[in-house]
Structures are given as structure tokens and as C-alpha cells.
Amino acid sequence: RKKVGVLVSGRGSNLQALLDACADPAFPAEIALVISNVPGVLALERAAAARVATAVIPHRDYPTREAFDAAMDRVLRAAGVEIVCLAGFMRLLSSDFVAGWRGAMLNIHPSLLPLFKGLHTHRQALEAGVKLHGCTVHLVTPDLDDGPILVQAAVPVRDDDDECCLAARVLEQEHRAYPFALRLLAEGRVTVDGNRARIRE
Ligand code: GAR
């Protein structure tokens, strides 16, 4: 089983979906470590409840982004992590860190990329008036919310939706898409050709 490190900053519902998937011994990955840049968040409690090692690395303790990322990198490598999953991790990553995990770091983003990068994606979708919205799991490259797409899931936008109920509808799909994408990567079925990720059957 591939060893996974999950980076979190908050609620950790996507972490929970990954923990639940990894609880099946037949799943090709296991979570070795959860790192949070914020102390006291629910994600850390979820990891502890699943008997997964945790580390808190507060970004404010480091003089630069590079120093913070290097600290995370050391902890991930020391734990033997082979794949990094960003799960609601709300910090930009430096290019060195991203380069060090090229082809081995996944992010989940709550929109159908390349639409609606950045924050408040559900508000962005409502303001744009799209009728389909969703989530994307992609390999991380140096640009924010960019990189080869492994999995997307779409949901309808309903006329009476507000940000909250649209977010909830998307989140349900996130919890299915992320374990599925991690499985594909952990099984070594992903090859990258430019912007495109191809998945072997
Ligand atoms: C999720 O909706 C995730 O897609 C999003 O933050 C939420 C975290 O929830 N991520 C981003 O916006 C990254 N740019 P969770 O902590 O319950 O998984």
C-alpha cells in the first residue's frame, strides 16, 4: 500500500473520506500522516480517531513560505510518505515543494476546473449562472488550481440554490471523487502527457 500524507487546514471532511477508503485493507493506499498548518482543527481529531499520526506545523512559526514548506517536506519524507493529498489545505505552496512532489501530489478543488479557480467557487458559479458545477481532483503543478485532471464530478445548479446548498451538493461528490482519484494514482495507472492525465484501464 502506498503511504499517503494529507495536508489539511480545517474541517477535514475530505480527509475523512480518504480515511474511510483507506480503512479497507484492499485499498491501494494508507494514510501515514496528517499535517495541519492550523492547531486545533476538526481534521486533526478525525485523524486521531482513526489512529493516524498527526503533526501541527503552524505556518506563522516560519519566516518564509519556503521555510514552512521545507519543514513540511522533512516531516513527510521522515514518515516515508510517497503521495501527498491536499485536502482543504489553504496555503499556497512554493515551487520547490511542488517540484519535489511532481506527479505525486493531488489537490481537490470545489469547481469544474479550469473554471472558478481560487476562493468562493460556489459564489463564483452562481454569479456566472452556470447550470453545471462540481469538483476536480488534479495533480498539483506550480500554478494555483492547475495541473493534469484525474477526476471530475458534476452536479446540477438549481434555480433556488444558494452558496450553502450548492456547496453541500458538490461536497458529496468530492467525498466520492477524492478516494477514486487516489486509487488511480496509488495503483500507478496515471500517466501525464502535457496537461492531460491518461488513466490506464
Ligand atoms: C473542500 O470543499 C475543498 O474542495 C476545498 O475546501 C473544502 C475543504 O473541506 N478546497 C479548496 O478550496 C482548495 N482551494 P474539508 O476540510 O471538509 O475537506
UniProtKB/TrEMBL annotation:
<dbReference type="InterPro" id="IPR036477">
    <property type="entry name" value="Formyl_transf_N_sf"/>
</dbReference>
<feature type="binding site">
    <location>
        <begin position="90"/>
        <end position="93"/>
    </location>
    <ligand>
        <name>(6R)-10-formyltetrahydrofolate</name>
    </ligand>
</feature>
<feature type="site" description="Raises pKa of active site His">
    <location>
        <position position="145"/>
    </location>
</feature>
<dbReference type="GO" id="GO:0004644">
    <property type="term" value="F:phosphoribosylglycinamide formyltransferase activity"/>
</dbReference>
<comment type="function">
    <text>Catalyzes the transfer of a formyl group from 10-formyltetrahydrofolate to 5-phospho-ribosyl-glycinamide (GAR), producing 5-phospho-ribosyl-N-formylglycinamide (FGAR) and tetrahydrofolate.</text>
</comment>
<keyword id="KW-0808">Transferase</keyword>
<dbReference type="GO" id="GO:0005829">
    <property type="term" value="C:cytosol"/>
</dbReference>
<feature type="domain" description="Formyl transferase N-terminal">
    <location>
        <begin position="2"/>
        <end position="181"/>
    </location>
</feature>
<dbReference type="Pfam" id="PF00551">
    <property type="entry name" value="Formyl_trans_N"/>
</dbReference>
<keyword id="KW-0658">Purine biosynthesis</keyword>
<dbReference type="InterPro" id="IPR002376">
    <property type="entry name" value="Formyl_transf_N"/>
</dbReference>
<feature type="binding site">
    <location>
        <begin position="12"/>
        <end position="14"/>
    </location>
    <ligand>
        <name>N(1)-(5-phospho-beta-D-ribosyl)glycinamide</name>
    </ligand>
</feature>
<comment type="similarity">
    <text>Belongs to the GART family.</text>
</comment>
<feature type="binding site">
    <location>
        <position position="65"/>
    </location>
    <ligand>
        <name>(6R)-10-formyltetrahydrofolate</name>
    </ligand>
</feature>
<dbReference type="InterPro" id="IPR004607">
    <property type="entry name" value="GART"/>
</dbReference>
<feature type="active site" description="Proton donor">
    <location>
        <position position="109"/>
    </location>
</feature>
<dbReference type="GO" id="GO:0006189">
    <property type="term" value="P:'de novo' IMP biosynthetic process"/>
</dbReference>
<feature type="binding site">
    <location>
        <position position="107"/>
    </location>
    <ligand>
        <name>(6R)-10-formyltetrahydrofolate</name>
    </ligand>
</feature>
<comment type="pathway">
    <text>Purine metabolism; IMP biosynthesis via de novo pathway; N(2)-formyl-N(1)-(5-phospho-D-ribosyl)glycinamide from N(1)-(5-phospho-D-ribosyl)glycinamide (10-formyl THF route): step 1/1.</text>
</comment>
<protein>
    <recommendedName>
        <fullName>Phosphoribosylglycinamide formyltransferase</fullName>
        <ecNumber>2.1.2.2</ecNumber>
    </recommendedName>
</protein>
